[in-house]
Amino acid sequence: MITLASAAQAHEVIPSVADMEQDGSQLRFDVRTSLETFIAGIDQAEVSDTNDAPQAETFDDLRLLAPAALEESFRNYWPQMAGEISIEAGGERLVLTLDDVTAGPIGDVENPRASSFGFTAALPDGAETVSVGWDRSFGTLVLRQMGVDAPYDGYLEPGDRTPDIALQGGDQASGWMTFLNYIPVGFDHIVPLGLDHILFVLGLFLLSTRFRPLLWQITAFTLAHTITLALAALGYVNVPASVVEPLIALSIAYVAIENLYTDGLSRWRPFIIFGFGLLHGLGFASVLTEFGLPDSAFVPALIGFNIGVEIGQIAVVAVAYLCVYYAMKTSEDGRSSIAGSVGYLVAMVVAVALIIPLAAAAPDMVGDIIPVLAVIGVLLGLSAASVVSEKFDSYREMVTMPASILIALVAVYWSVERVFL
Q1: Is residue 52 in some structural domain?
Q2: What local confidence, expressed as pLDDT, does residue 54 receive?
């Protein structure tokens, strides 16, 4: 068994994990989280990286505090936080009392500090159920009921409230429901949250849009990341994100650069993609280890997450294919199309313009939506240039190669950023 420490990226906003257990007339919550994010006042529904928050400097200052000083800072902040956690039982909103807070050691400031706090609430007489509301600004919450049979286990999106949870247990989701619930978690990790995985899949797609070479690559990648995802989720493999993330970026750069020197699938490329898939599986696993998998439905949750990832990858390939289909056809025929180029440019403008209504409808996703729409816009723009050329194979020259160069530049920057910045 490989037992190396695991950690998320230093400034990544991670979900909070809360264990809830009844102790007589008291309801106890133990929460594992990043104290600094709350104290700094970062809206965790709006950003996925604390560096993108207006309070980034405050967060960094808090990250350097000694544990005792950080604990005292959180105690001072608690009255405000308690007012934004809504726990109801027996038709009453419960009063929350902070019992303890434990800040992790400063350690490597490039990694998040593992901290925790515990609070209790007095249950009213005769209460049989409880519901928990988590303020939107607090981000995602994983809530797990402890000490009962068939316990509730929920994944709350920012601002969500649980249904009524039976204090005596019995609200455990079925394996089928757990499976269904984890599919969107896996999909979200690809689209729109996994820009690095999106660029990797695009790198595979750009080598050859023909079905057979793409199938070989996707099959090797899927098999490999499924293996390491399962092993990491089971606890057999645990590799630091500080190692995995730069290597993932380098794998993206390699695939994109190789696209510049070959226009077909080499005999070695599927094996190389398999190796890269092992790395990406560890990246996928980091999402699961942040909030864990339900012990009672581990396998359905793992399978659901993995299927969500696969659907996300298929969605990336499908959208990319739609973006470049006409460019491929004109390239094969060696003809040009002014009307096609205009159509592509209009589609590119529409894709960029979509940012405005999407920003209004889902403001918390703007930072994730913009990169995805930018990728679509680039593919449409390059395709617009390709269809006005009368050259045979203009698609490779004007779409594959420029797009691969852009992907390689982004990936190289990520490699440097994840190691040195």
Answers
A1: yes
A2: 87
Domain boundary among 149, 171, 193: 171
Tokens 């159509």 locate to 343
> pTM for the whole thing?
0.76
Say whether pLDDT at 193 is over 90.
no
Query: Does residue 3 fall inside a structural domain?
Result: no
Q: Are residue 354 and residue 206 in the same domain, yes or no?
A: yes
Supply the pLDDT for residue 316: 94
Those residues with Cβ within 8 angstroms of residue 369's Cβ, 6 or more apart along the chain or in another chain: 192, 355, 358, 359, 362
Neighbours of 160 (CB within 10 A): 15
Q: What distance lies between CA 336 and its chain's CA centroid?
A: 40
Rounded to whole angstroms, the Cα distance separating 44 from 341 reads: 41
Tell me what the mean pLDDT of segment 253-277 comes to.
89
Residue 1 located in a structural domain: no
User: Do 259 and 402 fall into the same domain?
Assistant: yes
- The verdict on 370 and 285 lying in the same domain is yes
Question: Tokens in use for 184?
Answer: 């969107």
What is the span of the domain harbouring residue 357?
179-420
Establish if 7 belongs to a structural domain.
Answer: no
**Residue 185 and residue 320 in one domain:** yes
Domain boundary among 171, 205, 222: 171
208 with 229, same domain: the answer is yes
Please report the beta strands in 225-372, taking only residues with DSSP state E, as ranges in sequence order: none
**Helical segments of 354-400, H only:** 355-361, 366-387, 394-395
Bridge-based pairing state of the strands 115-122 and 96-102: antiparallel
Q: What does the pLDDT average to over 98-118?
A: 87
Question: Residues 266-279: pLDDT tens digits?
Answer: 788 889 999 999 99
The closest of 372, 396, 402 to 209, measured between CA atoms, is 396
What is residue 94's three-state secondary structure?
coil
For the chain, percent of residues with pLDDT exceeding 70: 92
Q: Answer yes or no: do 228 and 377 share one domain.
A: yes
Nearest-angstrom CA–CA distance, 172 and 150: 5
- Regarding whether 274 and 298 lie in a shared domain, the answer is yes
pLDDT in tens, 340-370: 999 999 999 998 888 778 767 666 566 677 8
Instruction: Please spell the DSSP secondary structure of 5-28, one letter per residue.
Output: -----TTB---EEEEEEEETTEEE
CA 178 to CA 180: how far, in whole Å? 5
**Can you tell me the mean pLDDT for 72-79?**
97
Distance of CA 109 to CAs 62, 66, 75, Å?
11, 12, 22
Which structure tokens are listed for 24? 């007589």
Domain count for the chain, please give it: 2
